[in-house]
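Hi V.,

You were right to ask for the full record rather than a summary. Here it is.
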Amino acid sequence: MTSLPAVRGAHLVGSINQPTAADSLRIVAENLAGHVARYPDGEVGERFHWILFQGSKFDAVAGLERVPRDPIMLAGFDVRPLVLDGTVPAGELVFGPLGYAEAALAGYRDFKALREAGTIPTGARFQVCLPTPLAPLSVYVAPADRPAVYPLYAAAICKEIAAIAAAIPAEELAIQIDLATEFSYIEQVAMGARKPFPWFIEGLAEDADVPAETIIEAVTTMAAEVAATVPEHVELGFHLCYGDVAEKHFVEPADAGNLTAVANALSARVARPIGFLQLPVPIERDDEAYFAPMATLALHPETALYLGLVHHEDGTEGGLRRIAAARPALAAAGVEEFGVATECGLGRGPEDRMAPLLRLHAEIIKAASV
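Predicted structure:
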């Protein structure tokens, strides 16, 4: 007899190392159909490295210019920050299309064709993954100019959401909002050259010691403002993340405390339904201490919880250890069932790993139900 919470379903964070959106959708259908409710397009093409392609969108804005230094290349992208050049008032910056809506509409056409062919089951949703505005802004705008540029870029992200929601039927669409950069601020750990300064909290001195709770309140308020623009009947979800550079976190969380705090803050601040929430679990953590803070999870009743406990390195056995360690805390929180996921997207792993890793989700679900 399996003890509660039960394990049901899988969630894919977004990126999948396949050549095209159609290939990504097809490989999921062939290896995990029946366990996933949402099909991402794999974040293929220029989105392969998450937000780095957004640099060209900032470059196209009159009034912004790159700092005058040699390019800083990361995965083929120049990540030098931009600054206000004084030619356009900050409040009048105009961002063009950011590329998310264009990619979503193209991916949805592939999704619909595969569904009509019977490859993707009827009732599944097409999943679109978007960063919070904080993430690209933290990479591509110099710290001093972030407060001025943020409202304009946030408006551009919301415009992308509106375009996606206008073109894809609400009952066929899921929008996932990724919070990753937020955890660099919360943990006060640098993803780049310097410790991140939480500029979005008014009145702070540069050397201020800011409690994590204060940062969590601020970043979740910002994320909730974006989430509020997702139409009600479009499924909304959140992926919480500690990064994925060379399949490693930028810092390993001491436990799930900050993840739980962010999840609860989003649940409190987002008034509309939240369909799903995904939390990462490091491969080393199969101890109850890591999961203990999850006993205080206070999610919306409609929210499906997924734990990123699937790791290709230790397969079914490792997944089951982490499930066993998670169950007491989740039971204490009143969670009756949860699903499985990987910590982050699959796109940075080798292409030939994709099908076996997708099947591993199903194997863990089956083994956990015995």
